[in-house]
Every structure is written in structure tokens, then in C-alpha cells.
């Protein structure tokens, strides 16, 4: 078999490097052969030591390739299928299997039903070794995510009901892996199976009590899995959101007439004919609104989801529904807050805020605990917000022409309330009570004052003068952050990312120190523990996004917009690259800014622009503090003519 093209290129361009590469390959091949033989030993102690070494060595892709060439994956699967290994033997076997599969060399479709059944049995057992359970859950997640055929097989072996007991323990890692498997099953399930079942309702309740409200703080990976579950749950609404109303469908028309009946007939005293007549006198105008509502529900989104929300509100919050409808029915036409139109536009807005119908983001952790407190959380969310809309309409004394303005204010109220991540729907409701229209105006005014930009010529000249000082301050901050260093995750084919590496700049700004870590550090990592170095003088360029080599090589990553936005690479001598994927946008901006500053290039990130605006505005306000309420002229005062003589000058000597 001819050598790979990249090895041939290395041999031609750097002849001295080729023997070293060959030597590394030979060592890996010998080690793979030895471990392949040792893990088949009849001695349990020798076999255990060999499996430990295999689990550690499998992280290296060169070794992994050699071991896989020896049909090592098949050997490991046979060992699992035999069912003779337990405890540490089984744990290290599964760990080695996960590490080897992580490199993406072998397809997941090659595994037998017997292997799947065995892995599933470890998950279904009531008492199982924690390490074995953790690896088994990771394998099931990868199977489901990487193959539709394997999803079918796994789904036959595992149900949500069998996974729920793992959420009732106290090990957050096991809970995280369990929710990851549930999310994977949910994500790959065909549409006809994506519906809320009794098990899913039980799942929500258990997650709320054992995960969200547990004494342990929620780590980033758990937050991400809860966010994914939240998104997938709300995506169940997409079908109704994209379903148009059929004006000829009598069942759908009956729902609209039921909304009218609840508002005008419920709690009517049969003896109070005057009250009945008064309400029925409104039917003519209301019938016109019903017809208009039928027409509006034809548009998608929000389609039939808006009608579902209105009916839920009418049935489960009947008093509030009747009050809103009757209140608006008694107002003048121009001051009426149209319930039908408001409900439709509000439902559409809530779907946009919660991104209903969109796939989960790869790096987002933005879950809201309050949505796990109720089986019908979206409908309850709507019921709170429709009452807010009616309250805000009255506070603004709005007319029909102000409808869009009211919706903008309501959206701002909702998004501001969501930023504090309320723990319950009641807390969310209380937060909205404090965000009245008057309060929103005060907040807007305060923010405008903070962002006020003076446009007079002297002010602009002063800004230009102090801007280089601020940029130098930002540059020093970026370099200081690089000196502190950052822990980066290694991206693999599985969603779970347990491998870390650390990179930091030396205090003299001349060397980048980096190296692999066993686990995420709690603080700064000292220079002497990082085995690799890269002199800053050797750095040729910094590339980002799709120009990065690691984004070009891995097709799956290339398609991921979030990872593309966080990827950057350092090109140094001999066309070598040091590849990064930042943990978040903030770290991405810090590192790209800092590296560009080291190279003497301009810092162009969004973070730099934001810092520049903030610091520049603060400095301007401080410098102009003594000029408050003083009118600054557009042009400087004229310079007076020179005096005819300077006799008035006093000579101190």
C-alpha cells in the first residue's frame, strides 16, 4: 500500500523528519502488536495491565490506526459479547473501545446486534459499576447519533423508562450521560414517535427534582444537555406551528365558537336575563372578529398553535380570559386590544424567542429552569404573557395604530425577565410585574444616557486623541489574559468532550507554552508543566473560521456554524499549525486579539470594538465632568491679533 500523500510531502520537503516519522510508526506498530497479544492473555493480572495500557495508548491516533489494522476493534467487541469480563476488566475494555472509536477511523455501522444488546444490558442493570455504566451510555449515544440504522436497534433495547433510574442518583456525570442518550434518541426519532408520553412527563419531574433543584451546581456539560432537551421539547410544537387552519373544518371552527361561548356564556345567571341580553348584544361584533380570526390563522407561523394557546388559556385560566375579553369588548373600537390578533402575534413572538423549530446549538448552555416546572410550560408561558400584553396595552393607552409598538415593548419585557433565569413560572410572573411600561421607559432612557455619543467637532477631536491610549490599554489586557492561559477542549466525533489541553503566553511575551491535561484545571497551569513551546517569533499568521486546517479536514465540523465561529489556528515555520477551538466567543476574541497584537496587527474582534466603545465613553464622560451643563461651541474661539508690543510682560529675573 503506498504511503499517504501527506507523508510523501513531508519526506520530500523535510528529508530529516521522515526517518523520525518512520521510527514513531514502527514503535506504535510494535506496541499495538504487543498489546493485541497481551489482552488475550489467560492471566487476569496481565490482561488487566494490558487493558489499562491500551485505554491510555488509544488516545494517540498513530497507535489507534495500528491497533485497528490488527482488527483490534473486533477483538474488543468479542470480549464484550462473551460476557466473561467484569469490573475493571470490562471498564478498561469499554474505555479503550470509546477512545479508538473517537478517532473516526471505523464506521459505527459495523457492529452486531449482540454487541448492542450487551451494551444496553449494562445500562438496564439496576446495580452496575459506575465506570462501566458511564462508558456504556457514551457508546449508546454515539451509536444513535452516528447511524440511523443503529438508532432503530438501540431504540428496541432501551426505553426512557429504563434510563430514568440513572437520573435519580447523585452522580452528575452519570446523569449527564443519561440525558445525552435521551436527547440522542429524541433527536433521531421519526416524527410520528416525537410526542409527549407519560414517561417524558415523569422524566421532566425527575430532572427538576434530582438535577435542577439538587444541591450540586450544574456544570457546563449538564447545562448544555438540559438546553438540548428544552429545545427538542419545544420543537414538538413545530408541527402545530406550521399547520394552517382550514376554514372549512367544522372541528376547528367549533374551537373558535367555544372561545366565544366561554367568554360570553359561562357563569351567566339564567334568571339575569338583562346580563344575558347585554352579553348577546356583543355577538354581532364578536362574530365579525371570529371570521377575522379564521382568516388570520391561515398564516404560518404560528398557525394552529395560536388557537391551541387561546383554548388552553380559556379553559385553564377562565377568569383571566373572561376578564380580558369582556374588558376589551366594552372599550371603544380604537382602544380595544384585539384578543385574537394579540394571541396570534404573541404566539409567533414566543416561538421566535424560544427558537421553536431550530436545531440545538452545539455550544449553548442557555436552559431555563422554569420550563421544567410544568408539563404544559409553553402554554403556561403564553398565559402569563397574554395577560402582560393586555396590562401593557392599558399602561400605554394604546390604540389600534400602536399595536406593533406594544408588541415591541412586550418583547422587551419578556426578554429582560428571561435574562435572570427564573426558577419558576411564578418568579417569571413576579419579575414581569416589576417591568411595567414606565420601568421600561426608565431603562431605555438610562441606556441611552450611557450610550450617548457626542457629535460636536471638539468632542470628536478629543475622542480621536485619546483613542490610541484606550487601544493600548485593551492590548495590554489581552496579553495579560494570554499570560493567564486558557483550557481548550479537544473536539472529537462524539458530543462528549473529555480531553483537554492548555495554552498560555510567557510573561515576557516571547513564547507560547502548551500541553495536554488529564482533566480541566481549577486555576492557572504553571509553565513548567506544559511540555511544548512555540516561540512567538516563529508565528507567521493567525487564520480563523473555514480557513483553519482542522475545519477543512473534518467534514462534520465544517458544517457546524458554531464551531466555525470559534475556530482559529496559528501558522508557524515549516507550514505547521497549532489548532484551537475556543470554549466560547469571549475567549475566541481574547485569543485572536492577543495573537494579532503579538504580531503587530490590528485587533478587529467584536469584543475589542465593544471594549473600545465602553472605555472610550467612560473616559470621555470623566474628562467632560467639569463641563456639565456648559455649551461646547462647534468651532474653537478665534485667536486674537498679536499686540503691538510686549511691554506688559514682567521679567521675573
From TrEMBL:
Superkingdom of source: Eukaryota
Keyword Transmembrane helix: no
Protein name: Engulfment and cell motility 1 (ced-12 homolog, C. elegans)
PROSITE patterns found in the cross-reference section: ELMO
Alphabetical UniProt keywords: Apoptosis, Phagocytosis, SH3-binding
Any one GO molecular-function label of the UniProt entry: SH3 domain binding
InterPro entries: ARM-like, ARM-type_fold, ELMO_ARM, ELMO_dom, ELMO_domain-containing, PH-like_dom_sf, PH_domain
Biological process (GO), any one: phagocytosis
PANTHER family per UniProt: ENGULFMENT AND CELL MOTILITY, ENGULFMENT AND CELL MOTILITY PROTEIN 1
Amino acid at each position: 500500500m503506498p504511503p499517504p500523500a501527506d507523508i510523501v510531502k513531508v519526506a520530500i520537503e523535510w528529508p530529516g523528519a521522515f526517518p523520525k516519522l518512520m521510527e514513531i510508526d514502527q514503535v506504535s506498530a510494535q506496541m499495538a502488536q504487543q498489546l493485541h497479544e497481551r489482552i488475550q492473555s489467560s492471566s487476569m493480572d496481565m490482561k488487566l495491565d494490558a487493558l489499562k495500557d491500551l485505554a491510555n495508548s488509544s488516545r494517540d491516533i498513530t497507535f489507534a490506526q495500528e491497533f485497528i489494522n490488527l482488527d483490534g476493534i473486533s477483538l474488543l467487541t468479542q470480549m464484550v459479547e462473551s460476557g466473561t469480563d467484569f469490573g475493571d476488566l470490562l471498564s478498561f475494555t469499554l474505555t479503550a473501545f470509546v477512545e479508538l472509536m473517537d478517532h473516526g477511523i471505523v464506521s459505527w455501522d459495523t457492529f452486531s446486534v449482540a454487541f448492542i444488546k450487551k451494551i444496553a444490558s449494562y445500562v438496564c442493570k439496576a446495580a452496575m459499576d459506575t465506570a462501566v455504566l458511564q462508558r456504556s451510555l457514551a457508546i449508546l449515544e454515539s451509536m444513535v447519533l452516528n447511524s440511523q440504522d443503529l438508532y432503530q436497534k438501540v431504540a428496541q433495547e432501551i426505553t426512557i423508562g429504563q434510563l430514568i433510574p440513572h437520573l435519580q442518583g447523585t452522580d452528575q456525570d452519570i446523569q449527564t450521560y443519561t440525558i445525552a442518550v435521551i436527547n440522542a434518541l429524541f433527536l433521531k426519532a421519526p416524527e410520528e414517535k416525537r410526542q409527549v408520553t407519560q414517561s417524558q412527563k415523569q422524566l421532566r419531574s425527575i430532572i427538576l427534582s434530582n438535577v435542577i433543584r439538587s444541591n450540586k451546581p450544574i456544570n457546563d456539560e449538564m447545562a448544555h444537555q438540559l438546553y438540548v432537551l428544552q429545545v427538542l421539547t419545544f420543537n414538538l410544537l413545530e408541527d402545530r406551528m406550521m399547520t394552517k387552519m382550514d376554514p372549512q373544518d367544522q372541528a376547528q371552527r367549533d374551537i373558535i365558537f367555544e372561545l366565544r361561548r366561554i367568554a360570553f356564556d359561562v357563569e351567566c345567571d339564567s334568571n339575569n336575563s338583562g346580563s344575558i341580553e347585554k352579553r348577546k348584544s356583543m355577538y354581532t361584533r364578536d362574530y365579525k372578529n371570529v371570521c377575522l380570526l379564521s382568516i388570520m390563522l391561515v398564516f404560518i407561523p404560528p398557525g394552529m398553535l395560536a388557537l391551541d394557546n387561546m383554548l388552553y388559556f380559556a379553559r385553564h385560566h377562565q377568569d383571566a380570559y373572561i376578564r380580558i375579553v369582556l374588558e376589551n369588548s366594552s372599550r371603544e373600537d380604537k382602544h380595544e386590544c384585539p384578543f385574537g390578533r394579540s394571541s396570534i402575534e404573541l404566539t409567533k413572538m414566543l416561538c421566535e424567542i424560544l427558537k421553536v423549530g431550530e436545531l440545538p446549538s452545539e455550544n449553548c448552555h442557555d436552559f431555563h429552569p422554569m420550563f421544567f416546572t410544568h408539563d404544559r410550560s409553553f402554554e403556561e408561558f403564553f398565559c402569563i404573557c397574554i395577560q402582560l400584553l393586555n396590562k401593557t396595552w392599558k399602561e400605554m393607552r394604546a390604540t389600534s395604530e400602536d399595536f406593533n409598538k406594544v408588541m415591541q415593548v412586550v418583547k422587551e419585557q419578556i426578554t429582560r425577565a428571561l435574562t435572570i433565569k427564573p426558577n419558576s413560572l411564578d418568579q417569571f410572573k413576579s419579575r414581569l410585574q416589576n417591568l411595567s411600561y414606565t420601568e421600561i421607559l426608565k431603562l431605555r432612557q438610562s441606556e441611552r444616557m450611557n450610550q450617548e455619543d457626542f457629535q460636536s467637532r471638539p468632542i470628536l477631536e478629543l475622542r480621536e486623541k485619546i483613542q490610541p491610549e484606550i487601544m493600548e490599554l485593551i492590548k495590554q489586557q489581552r496579553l495579560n489574559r494570554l499570560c493567564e492561559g486558557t483550557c481548550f477542549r479537544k473536539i472529537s466525533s462524539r458530543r462528549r468532550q473529555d480531553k483537554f489541553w492548555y495554552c498560555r503566553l510567557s510573561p515576557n511575551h516571547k513564547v507560547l507554552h502548551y500541553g495536554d491535561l488529564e482533566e480541566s484545571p481549577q486555576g492557572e497551569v504553571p509553565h513548567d508543566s506544559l511540555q511544548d513551546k512555540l516561540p512567538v517569533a516563529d508565528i507567521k499568521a493567525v487564520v480563523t473560521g473555514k480557513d483553519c486546517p482542522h475545519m477543512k479536514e473534518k467534514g462534520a465540523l465544517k458544517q457546524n456554524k458554531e464551531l466555525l465561529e470559534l475556530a482559529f489556528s496559528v501558522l508557524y515555520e515549516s507550514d505547521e499549525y497549532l489548532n484551537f477551538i475556543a470554549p466560547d466567543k469571549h475567549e475566541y476574541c481574547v485569543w485572536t486579539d492577543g495573537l494579532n497584537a503579538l504580531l503587530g496587527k490590528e485587533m478587529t474582534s467584536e469584543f475589542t470594538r465593544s471594549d473600545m466603545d465602553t472605555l472610550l465613553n467612560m473616559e470621555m464622560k470623566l474628562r467632560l465632568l467639569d463641563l456639565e451643563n456648559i455649551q461646547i461651541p462647534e468651532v474653537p474661539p478665534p485667536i486674537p491679533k498679536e499686540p503691538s508690543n510686549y511691554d506688559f510682560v514682567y521679567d521675573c529675573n
